[in-house]
Amino acid sequence: MGGIFSSTNSTAQISGMLQELERTRMEREIALAQLQERRRIAFKLAEEREKFNWIACGGGLVVVLSALSSFHHKNLLHVIPIFPMASFIGYKAHFCYGDQLKKISESSAHILEESVDSLVPLPPTLADVRHRSNQLKEEESLANF
């Protein structure tokens, strides 16, 4: 009789150990996925900062040349490129050195919490499939006449 209880007890121990191993494996997978996502974001930010150096130089040159051209030709239309260039450079600077990534993350979390049900369509139910099947049968029978 002692053998039956010991095999049941060892089975429970093995089951508990397997559950603990699975929990540990899942925790490690989640940690690895989070680490990979953080590295991807860091790489993207570093890439954008490198691009920003070139964008700022080119944009600064456009602004200076537009201002000089406007002054030289006494025509205010030559300053028009300054406004979109300044807004683009400002946007990129805010992305690279500001808190734009944080704002985007907060906004996406808010959207997920508030309205994800209206954004993602629900999968078809069994009733929907049956209704559509009946519609197709009716259309088929009408087409045969």
In short:
The protein is mostly helical and 145 residues long.
Figure out the total of helices.
4
Percent strand equals: under 5%
**Number of DSSP strands?**
0
Average predicted local confidence, pLDDT: 88
Fraction of helical residues: over 70%
Q: What spatial form do the alpha-carbon principal axes imply? A: flat
How far do the termini sit from each other? 76 Å
Largest sheet: none
Radius of gyration: 31 Å
N-to-C order of helices and strands: HHHH
Stretches where pLDDT is under 50 for at least 5 consecutive residues are none
Q: Which structural category fits the helices and strands?
A: mainly alpha
Explain how this protein is built.
The protein has 145 residues and is mainly α. The protein contains four helices and no strands. The longest helix has 72 residues, at 2-73. The N and C termini lie far apart (76 Å).
Spell out the blueprint of helices and strands.
Elements: H1 2-73, H2 82-97, H3 100-119, H4 126-144
